[in-house]
Amino acid sequence: MFTKILIANRGEIACRIIKTARKLGILTVAVYSDADANSLHVNMADEAIYLGPSPSRESYLLGDKVIAAAVKTGAQAIHPGYGFLSENADFCRKCEQENIIFIGPPVSAIEAMGSKSAAKNIMEAANVPLVPGYHGDDQSEAVIKKAADDMGYPVLLKATAGGGGKGMRQVWNEADFSEGFAAAKREAKSSFGDDTMLVEKYLTQPRHVEIQVFCDNHDNAVYLFERDCSVQRRHQKVIEEAPAFGMSEALRQQMGESAIKSAKAIGYQGAGTVEFLLDSDGSFYFMEMNTRLQVEHPVTELITGQDLVEWQLRVAANEKLPKSQEQLRIHGHAFEARIYAEDTNNDFLPATGKLSFLQPPTESRHVRVDTGVRQGDEVSVFYDPMIAKLIVWDENRDKALQRLAKALSEYRISGVTTNIDFLYNLATCPAFINENIDTGFIETHHDQIFHSDAQ
Ligand code: ADP
User: For residue 154, is the peptide bond before it cis, meaning its omega torsion is within 30 degrees of 0?
Assistant: First the structure.
């Protein structure tokens, strides 16, 4: 096992990784920008190296500086967390060149999944089911439109380089295709510098169900079951749960085995997530594979009793997976709500300011709070305005959901506008309790979720 690792991230995920490293007796090196000089992750780590000014481009995204910090401090491995450099193939390659272990998959796997269309080609060859569509090299409007016409509307245009819900556009009928196509390409170009598009059948009421997989360097692969992340706003996750409600054992196994097939098709190692759309008739389709630890990994940890960061460290250190498929079991039900500094009454505009009062619910075996801030800290304009992840567990879905509502009602934050009331309204919405959920949930239940006198 390593004796020292560097964590190339900030906020809650940096703190989360430090906790596990400490448990395993591994020393930690934090990195930080100007805005984070006094932040919790710097405080928790054994050492800290300054990277540069506050904007990520001048600090957390500077791969060479991060690697130099690892070399200087004698860290043997780098954990990239999520976001920033976590899915950057060049960074991963440079780590290899400097003999520093990148705690994640091999460069080839990051590259293979970096483009949505290349990923689809690989999955098609591996017999993993895909949403019907076109993801070819011929990018002429006529060819892509013909594919859309042939499969029938509505369709979804996606930027092959896309991510974070950006560069996607629904087209509802043939007459609107040209306009939608031009707009999607413009957005893709400005967001990703690449306007290559693919087109898919737009499923109108799917669920987003993703499978957590893990592979080691000794040919072992397991799935740690599924997470339902259907509750989304602008294609971004808001509340996640595990396991997915209403899953039969047969479907769980089928999706799990498909996910492992996907991972094996690209020689995967470490933690990965295979995202599927699940249609109401039980058919499921590969969407993409995320080659990193995900924000919502704690719900999987709570239902399996495993520490996924520990698994990542062990696999990166060439150990075997801690458990076999037969040894893994689902126990109870977990939810995660993402607590954000944002104004839900004003188009979810990010909020900034000083957390003048901060009192999370008391942690217990039922309630976990993953955060990177303390009372008095500043939520700045420079980074994602997530304040914390609230994760709850209980023996079944109903009880876990009651825990979530209670914990949300106990969360006290002053100084910064948050989405806590919005999350509470979601958690107590009858349709949510009754499992009447698909990816359009927030839009369809707008009036119930946005009523103001919930608490
Ligand atoms: P990104 O990489 O930007 O996160 P994804 O391909 O993962 O994009 O899709 C994000 C979300 O968009 C999904 O969780 C789902 O809600 C919606 N979505 C994606 N593809 C389709 C589709 N073909 N039909 C309906 N909804 C879709």
Answer: yes
